[in-house]
Design goal:
Number of helices: 15
GO molecular function: nitronate monooxygenase activity
Helix content: 40-55%
Low-confidence stretches: none
Structural class: alpha/beta
Bound molecules: flavin mononucleotide
Pfam families: NMO
Strand order of the largest sheet: 1-2-3-4-5-6-7-8
Shape: globular
CATH superfamily of the largest domain: Aldolase class I
Number of domains: 2
Organism: Mycolicibacterium sarraceniae
Keywords: Flavoprotein, FMN, Monooxygenase, Oxidoreductase
Number of strands: 10
Strand content: 5-15%
Protein name: Nitronate monooxygenase
Length: 333
């Protein structure tokens, strides 16, 4: 049995499960493992220090899988923006056929991607942005609810409402993101009108994810209350692990502090120390509320196969058993 949806058809993957871009985490081993398991994995372009490194990471991924995979291009306002055009050129040159855009309007990137036969899955956090992206001609939407790791936007609408609200307006394939980690989530997303799910946090706690084991264990040990929302007052909210550093950032900003006052605390190098050295209090690290549903560190293959198998069982046993069909006597009464 397989779960076929508009998403699996349009994006050419076996299962309706994506692994979204993850800074420092979305690398060749994880992405290839997701591809080999029949999901859609994305290399995170900006994790690679230069466009040439991205090129090498794509080639490395190809050595590990012959299945389709994509590249995430996250476009965020920055004082010194990375050379987006050069990263985009590498994506095209390397023959990548699927890109996940996120962070801002994908319009400037669409002509080049489409001219080169690349499908664009745009990730956004509101119905209005999803509608806008659809009207611009993207090929799929990933709608990211308030539960998610990373940037949930400023509207604070959780998936239970955001997904069906978006489904009312979106005709192209749409996957649901934020808070998904198991078969129940996948079935719920399908019921709410999505064509699949995107997961970040769940994939961090897998054998093939390159982060330190301490971080994986912290995710297993953590619960659904284990995150903080930083940068609220700066209108650039990010959901990250609750630790001494993130709590201090929240306090400083609550007290009227500005970015300058927390700049050193949130520095990327400190966050890298968490993932590389396993010191979970060294800096800010991104994680979502779905931590509360994660109890193990399986291989990606085990995880995806478990989610798909249990989702099929959930639909064909538990849900179908709840549907009572009236007997012919009842119908004729
Ligand atoms: C460690 C980490 C880093 C992330 N970095 C990015 C990123 O660079 N670009 C992006 O579009 N999304 C990023 N995300 C968000 C994920 O792609 C995905 O949308 C999110 O994790 C979904 O929520 P979930 O964690 O509840 O599954 C990141 C998530 C995590 C956990």
């Amino acid at each position: 049995m397989t779960l076929m949806t508009k998403f699996t058809e349009v994006f050419g993957v076996e299962h309706p499960i994506a692994q979204g871009g993850m800074q420092w985490v979305g690398r060749a081993e994880l992405v290839a493992a997701v591809a080999n398991a029949g999901g859609l994995g994305f290399i995170t372009a900006l994790t690679q220090p230069t466009p040439a490194d991205l090129s090498r990471e794509i080639q490395k991924t190809r050595e590990l899988t012959d299945k389709p995979f994509g590249v995430n291009l996250t476009i965020l306002p920055a004082i010194n923006p990375p050379p987006y055009d050069e990263y985009r050129q590498v994506i095209v040159n390397e023959g990548i056929k699927i890109v996940e855009t996120a962070g801002s309007n994908p319009a400037p990137h669409l002509p080049m991607f489409h001219d080169n036969g690349i499908k664009v899955l745009h990730k956004c956090t509101s119905v209005r942005h999803a509608v806008k992206a659809q009207s611009l001609g993207v090929d799929g939407i990933s709608i990211d609810g308030f539960e998610c790791a990373g940037h949930p936007g400023e509207d604070d609408v959780p998936g239970l409402v955001l997904i069906p609200a978006a489904a009312k307006h979106i005709e192209i394939p749409m996957i649901a993101s934020g808070g998904f980690g198991d078969a129940r989530g996948l079935v719920a997303a399908l019921a709410l009108g999505a064509d699949g799910i995107n997961m970040g946090t769940r994939f961090m706690a897998t054998v093939e994810s390159c982060i330190h084991d301490n971080v994986k264990q912290a995710i297993v040990d953590g619960d659904e209350r284990g995150t903080e929302l930083i940068f609220r007052s700066l209108h650039n909210t990010a959901r990250v692990a609750s630790n001494v550093v993130s709590r201090e950032v929240v306090e400083i900003l609550k007290g009227g502090g500005q970015f300058e006052d927390v700049k050193d605390l949130v520095a990327g190098v400190r966050g890298r120390k968490v993932f590389d050295d396993g010191d979970i209090d060294a800096g800010i690290w991104t994680v979502g509320t779905v931590m509360g549903l994660i109890d193990d560190i399986p291989t990606v293959g085990e995880l995806i196969s478990r989610i798909v198998t249990e989702a099929e069982q959930l639909i064909t046993n538990r849900l179908i058993d709840m549907v009572t069909v009236p007997s012919s006597e009842e119908l004729s009464a």
